[in-house]
Amino acid sequence: MRLCLVIVLIVLVACTKDPSVQDLRVSNEHNLTQPHIQFLGVGGWLLHWKGEGLMLAPSFSNPGLFGLRGVPSPLVLANERKIDKAMREVRGFGDVQMMLVGHGHYDHLLDVPWIVEHYMPGATIYGSETVKHILHGFDGLNEVQVVDVPPGKMARLRKPGESGPLMREGEWITSEGGHIRVMPIESEHAGHVAGLNLIPGGYRQDLTKPELSLWRWKPGQSLAWVIDLMDDKGEPVYRIHYQDSAATPPFGFVPDFADKKAIDVEILCASSWIQVPHYPQRVLERHRPRMVLIGHWENFFANDPHEPRLLVGQDVRAFIQVVQTTVGRHVPVILPAPLSEVAFPRPEKKPPL
Ligand SMILES: [Zn+2]
């Protein structure tokens, strides 16, 4: 069964396409002033705010079968040379204190141990219980703090029979300097083929060694994140929403916060969007962001970040059209090249009291 699935995947993705085939405009800016965000490729992003940094788990190794571009490998191993090469183009990672992980699949977690251990040993990794169990298998992380998010601390959907708002608030986690705070949100993982998640499940016990098989990198509870960048008085200046997988609405939605602060930047996941009904329309209708960034849009099997290609069957152009139609022409929708930067919009003016 698994062999068949692998063969199907190989046939599906072996022919990679240049983004120009879909007439896509790929943003590719560098050396911007703050505030900006750097796209690291796949689900990875990096932002800085008032001397503190936050990274959303990147994926640089991106193994391919026999190194072939576009072909997934059943064995996955962090490629230290490739990570180090990419990190040379990652600006200002030294201030990163928070590394947020959305789920445990290898394209979101495989490189995290090496990156944190070698580039940001003071950072704390936040993820689900499964993510913590997987990371336990990495010796080098003994000195690194890994914090799991128990279900009671994440924002979550109202359960059947419960009264109150659609999404219940979770707990904020605030950075050491106090200028960044994040909240995990109960989310969901899209299916890969025909609505099926080919690598489901999670772990309830610590692993004792790093997993080599692609099938053993289980997702666990998927988390979306809301990220607030705050001023010196503790008021949010920017509110960012991040999903590293398409999710059935209302999974991943931001709760109704008392401060009524709107979402400034919405970070969406293009991969498998077509597998999820009403994604991304519903999340955009609820959040009404001022800017939309598209991540996880490129073929990551043995990829070259400087020559991003599309996955076959990944209609990124249609995805962008759906996004733009939903948010309106006045909202910028940006498809960034891996390792490029995107400037944040100007802070929203507060309404007069
Ligand atoms: Zn995944």
Description:
With 353 residues, the protein is an alpha/beta fold. The chain has a single domain, classed as Ribonuclease Z/Hydroxyacylglutathione hydrolase-like (Metallo-beta-lactamase, Chain A, 4-Layer Sandwich). The protein has 7 helices and 16 strands. The chain has helices spanning 2-13, 80-87, 106-109, 112-119, 129-135, 281-287, 316-327; strands at 36-41, 44-49, 52-56, 96-100, 124-127, 145-148, 156-157, 167-168, 173-174, 180-186, 223-230, 236-242, 265-269, 291-295, 333-334, 341-343. The protein has a 7-stranded mixed beta sheet. The model has no long low-confidence stretch (mean pLDDT 90). The structure holds zinc ion (ZN). Zinc ion binds at residues 103, 105, 189, 219, 245.
Tag the structure with descriptive keywords.
about 350 residues, alpha/beta, seven-stranded mixed β-sheet, 7 helices, about 15% helix, about 20% strand, globular, binds zinc ion
Strand fraction band?
15-25%
CATH architecture: 4-Layer Sandwich
Structural class: alpha/beta
Q: How many domain modules?
A: 1
In helices, the fraction of residues equals: 10-25%
Neighbour order of strands in the largest sheet: 6-5-4-3-2-1-16
**CATH H level, superfamily name:** Ribonuclease Z/Hydroxyacylglutathione hydrolase-like
What is the first-to-last residue Cα distance? 63 Å
Residue ranges: pLDDT <50 for 5 or more in a row?
none
Bound molecules: zinc ion
The arrangement of helices and strands along the chain is: HEEEHEHHEHEEEEEEEEHEHEE
Question: For this structure, what is the CATH class?
Answer: Alpha Beta
Classify the fold: give the CATH topology: Metallo-beta-lactamase, Chain A
Q: Average the pLDDT over all residues and give the rounded result.
A: 90
Q: What radius of gyration results from the CA coordinates?
A: 19 Å
Molecular shape: globular
Specify the number of helices.
7
